[in-house]
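Researcher: Structure for this, please.
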Amino acid sequence: METRRKFLTGILGALGAAIAGLTVYPVFKYLSPQATAGGKGRVTIPKNQVGVDQAHFFQFQGHPAVVLQKSPGVYIALSAVCTHLGCIVQWVPKKDEFLCPCHGGRYTIDGKVIAGPPPKPLPSIPVAMSGDNLLIG
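Model: Predicted structure, token format:
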């Protein structure tokens, strides 16, 4: 009788530990920051994919980003992640501004906050030109 009780207690303890581990691991992965490629990654985008007043969305170091041609030959790249709660901003060409669909945050073409709850501007990403390509990062 005592041996059976110890066996069942051990099995239930192991099962409880396994369930706790399976519950805690996803929460830990969600809350921990994502690993990046050492911050040295560069993205190459052909210039012809980015027209004047057009936005081209892409992935930069595992996060959404956007590049725009403000005027002929003048490019700007920004993070596309809203600084309020992390939603992905959308480009509104008729207003020349970014809009966060979650809480109505608005940003200028340069990423500065116009209205809404975002606490700071969209982070900018360096852009260089190399022939017919844009080197971002």
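Researcher: Any notable elements?
Model: The helical segments are 2-31. The first helix runs from residue 2 to 31.
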